[in-house]
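User: Show me an example of a complex going from sequences to structure tokens.

Assistant: Sure. Here are the input components:
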Amino acid sequence: GAGVSQSPSNKVTEKGKDVELRCDPISGHTALYWYRQSLGQGLEFLIYFQGNSAPDKSGLPSDRFSAERTGGSVSTLTIQRTQQEDSAVYLCASSSPGLSGNTIYFGEGSWLTVV
Amino acid sequence: SQQGEEDPQALSIQEGENATMNCSYKTSINNLQWYRQNSGRGLVHLILIRSNEREKHSGRLRVTLDTSKKSSSLLITASRAADTASYFCATGAQGGSEKLVFGKGTKLTVNP
């Protein structure tokens, strides 16, 4: 597709369950980002992938969070043993550094509710 | 703490008025960008200003950058009700990775 695609758009899960959120970046974009946004708050950086380099995981809040990017394209963010404080919108973005001045393009987000 | 901090946190104006939002940051940057977000979903890129630029225009948007003060402002002229949204600044660190660090945003309400 033309834009960044995320799925599911909404997810309600029970506390303690694992969830997987998927991101399909814009074709050809080498950089992929995950951010988290709690209600009414700013964006919290989670993880950044760039090409074949080791990902920048400095924003992952705990070892329950992990992300992978297969084949340099699709990425999956996994949250294990979800907690209520994990409830937020998880935003994925992609960019092609150097070609667009690092303008990043966001998906519509996955709204996670942990009950 | 966040690299970029916007102020005010919230701004309410009448249609036709100008809206000014400010952003301060802490470290040296390559560029600064402004994004808009409707209804808590995806962000849309508005404008990018590089560290060697002082002012940039795009339609009704005017962005300034003062690297000596580590601050930027976004001016929306002749505001419209459709401009109601949250506005975020994001900075790309000089010499660092390409990741962007976002502030907490300014919630703008334009009343018809």
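The lines above are the inputs; the final block is the predicted structure for all two components together. The interface with chain B takes residues 4, 31, 33, 35, 37, 39, 41-43, 45, 48, 50, 56, 89, 91, 93, 95, 97, 101-109 of chain A (CB under 8 Å).
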